[in-house]
Write a structure and sequence with these properties.
It is built from seven helices and six strands; from the N terminus they run H-H-E-H-H-E-E-H-E-H-E-H-E. By secondary structure, the chain is α+β, with helices and mostly antiparallel strands.
Length: 174
């Protein structure tokens, strides 16, 4: 039996859990009986309500992937820079840098703590589960720990960022 199904492609201009939060909210609306137009409205309203910050401990993988040049990677490793990134309009952008991993984790915490209302929160990690667990524990002071999504990044993301990737994603209001 053939059925017609309306499909609309939406470019959220996000990746990782910010994109996941948008999809989760759309699916919840659909399951609650929302019309197609209402689901699309939920989707478009949540796109500007998501954000993320990601920290990684080396620029080496960005260099290998052609995202930065050798000179930038060399300077970053000599200065022991921990870059912080975000995504703006579908493009990866710098959101700062720190000189230590502890300060990078502090910056991720402060990013989430800067929200006046958090609806959804996620911590994702590459191959640094201890850092992620500690960050989840800290974030439990501002958001129910049992509601924090704790995920691993995909191999594709890890290939470009390295095993030290740690990121926080928020759906909420500043």
């Amino acid at each position: 039996m053939k059925r017609k199904c309306r499909v609309e492609v939406v470019d959220s201009q996000w990746a990782v859990m910010p994109q996941g939060f948008i999809v989760i909210k759309a699916a919840q609306a659909a399951q609650a009986g929302a019309s197609f137009a209402e689901v699309m409205d939920v989707t478009h309203r949540n796109i500007p309500r998501v954000d993320m910050r990601a920290a990684f401990d080396t620029l080496e993988y960005l260099k290998k992937g052609g995202r930065i040049g050798r000179a930038a990677a060399l300077m970053g490793s000599m200065l022991r820079v921990n870059p912080i990134i975000t995504i703006r309009d579908g493009v990866v952008e710098s959101a700062g840098k720190t000189r230590t991993r502890a300060k990078a984790i502090d910056l991720l915490y402060d990013f989430a703590a800067g929200y006046s209302h958090i609806e959804e929160l996620a911590v994702e990690a590459g191959a640094c589960p201890d850092d992620a667990d500690l960050l989840v524990e800290r974030l439990g002071a501002i958001f129910p720990r049992e509601r924090i999504y704790r995920t691993r990044t995909t191999p594709v993301i890890g290939t470009h960022t390295g095993p030290g990737l740690l990121l926080v994603s928020v759906l909420g209001d500043k």
